[in-house]
Amino acid sequence: MSYQPTMFIFGLGFTGTILSRMLVDNGWRVRGTKRGGIRPESGINMLPPSVEVFDFAADAPIANPDLAFDGVTHVLSTIAVIGGTDPVLAAHGATLKTIKASRDLWAGYVSATSVYTESKGGWVTENSPTDAISKRGQWRRQAEMDWQDQLGAEVFRAAGIYGAGRSAFQSLLSGKARIIRKPGHLFNRIHVADLARIIMAAMEQPQQQRVLNCADGNPSEAGEVIRKAAAMLGMDAPDPVDFADADMSPMARSFYATARCVDSSQLKSALGLDLLYPDYHTGLAAILAEEQRLGLIKDIAT
Q1: What Cα–Cα distance (Å) separates residue 121 from each residue in 118, 184, 250, 252?
Q2: Contact at 8 Å (CB) between 117 and 106?
Q3: What is the mean pLDDT of the chain?
Q4: Residues 6+ apart with CB under 8 A from 149
C-alpha cells in the first residue's frame, strides 16, 4: 500500500480551505474542523468532496478524536486565541502530544505579525523582539510558544490575509470601504494562495520550531490599496478620514495603533520560494480575474 500523507486542519476557514484544495490536488488525505461540522457546499469557501469535516469549537471538543486523528501525519491550526487560551491545545493538546511521541507528526501554527514589538514603521524580521503592545498580540505569542514547546510546531506569522472573496473589491462594492488617513501607517499583506504555498513548502522541508514571516514585499498604506481597487473597478474611492476623527471600534482602532514593515526574505533563503503575488498590484489583478470568473463581480464601470 502506498503512503498517503494525512493532514488535519483545525479551522477550515479562508486559509484552511485554500490549503485543503492544494493538498487534495497533490494526493493528500485531508480532515479538519468547522464550527457545527457544517461544510459549505457552494461558493468561495467550498471544500473538496474528499475532505472530512468534524465539529469543533472552544466549548465543543471533537467528539471522536480517535477517528479524527487516526493516521494523521500533519496537523495545522489556523484558529485564533480566544480569551487568552488556545482552544486547540486546551482541548486536544495532550492527545496530539501522545501521537507525536508515538510517531513522526509535523505540526504548524498560523500566527500573526501582531506578535512583534512596536517598531514605529521600521522593519521586523523573525528575530525581532516580540513584546506586543496589544492583548491579541501577546496571546498569539504565548500560543506560538505553547505550540512550539508541546509539538515542535513551525510558526507562520501571517500579515493581512487577502484573496478572492476577501479583498478591497467587496468592501468597495458593498459601500463599506473607508480610507483612514494616518500618514506613515504601513503594513504588509499576504495572498491566501501564497500563504498556503508557504505552508506546503515548509512541510516538504520541515524544521521543528521554525518561525517564518509570511508577507509580501510591498508594505503600504491601506488607502493605497483601496484607491487601486477602486480604479480597477472604475469607481471613485471614498474620501479619506483623519485617524483622529474616525469613528472606529476598539478592535479597528487597535490596528492603527502599530506600524511595521515585515521582512519575509527567509521564504526565499529557507524554502527557495518566490511569491506568486509579491505586491498588492499583482494580488488585486489576480483577485479581480478570479472574482469575475466566480460571478462575485459581474459588472465593471468604464
Answers
A1: 8, 7, 21, 18
A2: no
A3: 92
A4: none
CA distance 78 to 12: 8
User: Do the beta carbons of residue 277 and residue 191 sit within 8 Å?
Assistant: yes
pLDDT tens digits for range 165-195: 999 999 999 999 999 998 888 889 999 999 9
Instruction: Classify burial at 130, counting beta carbons within 10 Å of its beta carbon; exposed 0-12, middle 13-18, buried 19 or more.
Output: buried
According to the 3-state scheme, what is the secondary structure of 125-158?
CCCCCCCCCCHHHHHHHHHHHHHHHHHCCEEEEE
Asked if residue 267 lies in contact with residue 212, where contact means CB atoms within 8 angstroms, the answer is: yes
What are the cell numbers at 100? Answer: 507525536
Q: What is the pTM of this model?
A: 0.95
283 neighbors 189 (Cβ within 8 angstroms): yes
Q: How far apart are CA 241 and CA 239, in angstroms?
A: 7
